[in-house]
Design a protein that fits this description.
Elements (H helix, E strand, L loop, with lengths): L1 H28 L21 E9 L5 E11 L10 H6 L17 H7 L2 H4 L3 H13 L4 H10 L1 H9 L3 E2 L11 E2 L12
Antiparallel strand pairs: 1-2, 3-4
Helix pairs in contact: 3-6, 6-7
Keywords: Signal
Protein name: PAR1 protein
Pfam family, one: PAR1
Length: 191
């Protein structure tokens, strides 16, 4: 019994120390400007202003590929000064050298499976926030997609493939397509 209580206290102390170390490291980085990040830390980072960083590739006339990091117009919800951890990149099935920000990966069932896993969804708020907003832009509610991932995978994927336009049926006559829009949604906030 005493051994179990001691082990619990040790784990609590270790967790507090780890959190303190993470905050110290983040604090020592100071302000993050996307333009100052290199290829290995740009993708999935968030600047001090709350703008998401994107990696871009340019090819010079000589054929040499040059990578640059810049601020996008996409803002992160409640996050600033954030460089994503390697653990989250791996857990969520992402690639540090990803170029730009796109919802295309939400069409890949293997990626969605990793994104919806507890290792990613419950532990990586920056990535969940990003893909929550990308899914919302496609008219899909990420928690519902994750729920569908476990039940009816094909149906969840077909919801994303829809452009949001409804085409008239063959017998409906000369009607115009209807565009459905949704209000921006906030990602579930977890730390």
């Amino acid at each position: 019994m005493a051994s179990q209580k001691s082990r619990s206290t040790s784990l609590s102390t270790l967790a507090i120390l780890a959190l303190g170390l993470a905050l110290c490291i983040q604090g020592t980085l100071g302000s993050i400007a996307c333009e100052n990040l290199n290829k290995d830390s740009c993708a999935f980072a968030v600047s001090s202003s709350g703008k998401r960083c994107v990696l871009e590739k340019h090819v010079r006339r000589t054929g040499e590929e040059v990578y640059t990091c810049r601020s996008s117009e996409i803002e992160a919800d409640r996050l600033k000064d954030w460089i994503e951890t390697d653990q989250c990149i791996e857990a969520c099935g992402l690639d540090r050298t990803a170029l730009g920000i796109s919802s295309d990966s939400l069409l890949e069932s293997r990626f969605v499976q990793k994104l919806c896993s507890s290792k990613c969804y419950d532990s990586c708020p920056n990535i969940v926030d990003l893909y929550f907003n990308l899914a919302a832009g496609e008219g899909v509610y990420l928690p519902k997609l994750c729920q569908a991932q476990g039940k009816i995978k094909r149906r969840g994927m077909s919801e994303i493939k829809s452009s949001g336009y409804v085409a008239p049926g063959p017998e409906s006559g000369p009607t115009k397509p209807v565009k459905f829009t949704i209000a921006p949604a906030m990602a579930p906030y977890r730390i």
